[in-house]
Amino acid sequence: MGKKRRSYFSNRKWYRYHFFGTAFIEVLKENSKIDATIADISFSGMGIYSPVPINKGKKVMVKISFINISGKTCEDDVKGRIDWQRKFGNTYLVGIFFDEELNLIKQPLLFKHLTELIDRYNWPQPYKDRRIAML
Q: Total structural domains in the chain?
C-alpha cells in the first residue's frame, strides 16, 4: 500500500494574503533581473507571476513595491530562494521562500502595511496557530 502524500499547503504556518504590488527580482550570482507581479504574500514567503522561468533553489533578492493605505508608493527588500515553479500559459507561477520572516526592523514599510491591512479588513492573524497572537 502506497504512502499517502501530505499536501504542501497543509504544512504552512503562515496565512497568505492577496497582495497588490510588483516584485523586481535579482537572481543572485547571475546577471538576471526580472519584473514580476505579486499574487500573494505571507510573513515567510510570496507567490509571483513571472514572464520567465526561475529555477528552483536559486537565491534571489526581491524589491517589493506597493502602494500603502495613504496612497504613497513604498519599497522594501527581502532575500529568499525559489521554492517551486509551474508554467501557466505564457506565465510562470513561482513561490519564493524568504530567508527570514518579514520583520519590523528589516522591512518596516511592508510589515506596517500588512499589519494595517490585517487590522483594517479583519483578516486572520498571520500565524495559523491561534495560541500565538502576533499582532
A: 1
How many whole angstroms separate alpha carbon 38 and alpha carbon 27? 17
Domain that holds residue 106: 14-120
Asked if residue 131 belongs to a domain, the reply is no
Look up the pTM and report it: 0.85
β-strand pairing of 59-67 with 73-88 = antiparallel
Phi and psi at 87, nearest 5°, equal -80, 135
pLDDT tens digit sequence for 13-54: 788 999 999 999 999 999 899 999 999 999 999 999 999 999
The strand ranges marked E within the chain are: 17-18, 22-27, 32-41, 45-50, 59-67, 73-88, 91-98
With the CA atoms of 103, 106, 108 and 111 taken in that order, what torsion angle do they form, in degrees rounded to the nearest 10? Answer: -30
